[in-house]
């Protein structure tokens, strides 16, 4: 039988001290929601200050069959950080120390509550950076990025979180609250099975991360940026592929489709003007090659049908000219449209942000099929993404509690994901599975005759977490 809420709070306070456990329902509600429309509930929120306290919390919860939901900023979008009523949120926001910056060996040691933005501010002093940059970078934490396997706009060059984690300190959900160090601080490291890669992207279902050793890289010194509008998506993709063939050092490759551009520019007042599909790329160069590469890429863009080409010789110039603004704000025009369309003026607008990928060569067909689905069902959407690696983010916004719109969205989502799978893509690229994409994951695995993979994952879960107390119900049901 589960202990009373009061007893649990008292017991946890003996581990982390008074003031580090919250049971107030209104405060719990703040922690029991993510950056999307999802909400949960919990018995308490507990704030450990170090690894030893995390271990003691785990031992206590294991002994008393209390579910544990690890969390930091809860900026994820699939429900992977959401608690259920029979558990406690373990918030790592107070474990936010940068423990060591080692420029010579190109790594940094941090606690899970460190925000990616703050980490990069500190690293910039030394001329270095941590390159993973999700849209929520100002609030996203190292722990959350590890749990979701986060990516971002620089993914075309630097990949995702799994490529940047060398070593982890973790706490296993067993009777001892076992503390393990997995991986190495060196870039080359073989310890049998790669447990670090297993933990990265596991959405907090296998272990609690209490410390991470991350690779860091020098800040690029010379970066040029070009942006342009295309009347047809084929021309944009042909330009993208031609730029890649030139073996340039591509930092960013982003895209916003024509309808999203039109909606966005109705609301966004910036220096960039045009119509059609919007393409923006940033390329690392040397001081000597900047002009040559600018000219080369501009010619590639124009040869493939680009119009209104914008150029910047530095990232600061690109920012000041607003070259990235359409991409960063591609859904604000849709919000404005949905607000005007809603039946109840007091209703909230709910965002559904999908996270799909297709091979870059399949982008024209993917965009066409997504827009055909939109036309058939009548719910407007916006479409943009990290086009360099084929990662698209269709966004659909609906009126809260509008049952008809919710049902329509579910049908649209299902058809979009089926189309993506048929094109050789995936239903989740960088946001994770969480609660929202469990059925979608099974659909993708069925298409590959590989549903057995779920059973293998369940076996791994059972090995790490025999009582299923750590973030249960995420990715799959046990």
TrEMBL record:
Domain of life per record: Archaea
InterPro entries: FAD-bd_oxidored_4_C, FAD-bd_PCMH, FAD-bd_PCMH-like_sf, FAD-bd_PCMH_sub2, FAD-linked_Oxase-like_C, Oxid_FAD_bind_N, Vanillyl_alc_oxidase_C-sub2
Domain FAD-binding PCMH-type residues, every copy: 38-219
EC number, as in UniProt: 1.1.2.4
Cofactor(s) needed for function: FAD
GO biological process: lactate catabolic process
Database matches in Pfam families: FAD-oxidase_C, FAD_binding_4
Gene3D superfamilies: 3.30.465.10, 3.30.70.2740, Vanillyl-alcohol Oxidase, Chain A, domain 4 (1.10.45.10)
Keywords: FAD, Flavoprotein, Oxidoreductase, Transit peptide
Family in the record: Belongs to the FAD-binding oxidoreductase/transferase type 4 family.
Record's protein name: D-lactate dehydrogenase (cytochrome)
């Amino acid at each position: 039988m589960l202990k009373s809420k009061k007893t649990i709070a008292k017991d946890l306070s003996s581990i982390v001290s008074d003031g580090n456990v919250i049971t107030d329902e209104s405060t719990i509600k703040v922690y029991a929601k993510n950056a999307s429309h999802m909400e949960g509930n919990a018995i308490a929120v507990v704030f450990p200050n170090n690894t030893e306290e995390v271990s003691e919390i785990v031992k206590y919860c294991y002994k008393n069959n209390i579910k544990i939901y690890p969390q930091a900023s809860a900026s994820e979008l699939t429900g992977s950080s959401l608690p259920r009523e029979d558990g406690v949120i373990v918030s790592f926001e107070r474990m936010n120390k940068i423990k060591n910056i080692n420029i010579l060996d190109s790594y940094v040691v941090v606690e899970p509550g460190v925000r990616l933005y703050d980490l990069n501010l500190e690293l910039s002093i030394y001329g270095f950076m941590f390159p993973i940059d999700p849209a929520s970078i100002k609030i996203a934490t190292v722990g959350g990025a590890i749990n979701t396997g986060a990516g971002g706009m620089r993914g075309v060059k630097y990949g995702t979180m799994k490529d940047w984690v060398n070593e982890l300190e973790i706490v296993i959900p067993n009777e001892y609250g076992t503390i393990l160090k997995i991986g190495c601080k060196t870039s080359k490291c073989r310890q049998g099975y790669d447990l670090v890669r297993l933990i990265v992207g596991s959405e907090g279902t296998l272990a609690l991360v209490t410390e991470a050793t991350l690779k860091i890289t020098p800040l690029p010194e010379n970066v040029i940026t070009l942006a342009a509008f295309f009347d047809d998506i084929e021309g944009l993709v042909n330009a993208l592929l031609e730029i890649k063939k030139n073996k340039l050092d591509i930092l960013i490759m982003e895209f916003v489709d024509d309808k999203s551009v039109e909606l966005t520019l109705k609301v966004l007042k910036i220096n960039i003007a045009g119509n059609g599909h919007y393409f923006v790329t940033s390329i690392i160069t040397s001081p000597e090659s900047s002009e040559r590469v600018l000219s080369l890429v501009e010619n590639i863009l124009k040869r493939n049908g680009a119009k209104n080409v914008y150029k910047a010789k530095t990232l600061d110039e690109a920012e000041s000219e607003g070259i990235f603004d359409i991409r960063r704000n591609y859904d604000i025009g849709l919000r404005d449209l949905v607000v005007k369309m809603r039946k109840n003026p007091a209703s909230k607008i709910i965002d559904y942000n999908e996270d799909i990928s297709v091979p870059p060569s399949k982008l024209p067909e993917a965009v066409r099929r997504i827009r055909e689905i939109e036309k058939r069902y009548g719910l407007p959407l916006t479409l943009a993404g990290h086009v360099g690696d084929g990662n698209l983010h269709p966004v659909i916004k609906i009126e809260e509690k509008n049952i008809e719109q919710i049902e329509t969205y579910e049908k649209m989502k299902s058809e979009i994901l089926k189309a993506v799978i048929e094109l050789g893509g995936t239903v989740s690229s960088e946001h994770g599975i969480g609660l929202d994409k469990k059925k979608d994951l099974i659909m993708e695995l069925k298409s590959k005759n590989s549903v057995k993979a779920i059973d293998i994952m369940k076996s791994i879960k059972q090995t790490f977490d025999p009582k299923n107390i750590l973030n249960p119900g995420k990715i799959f049901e046990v």
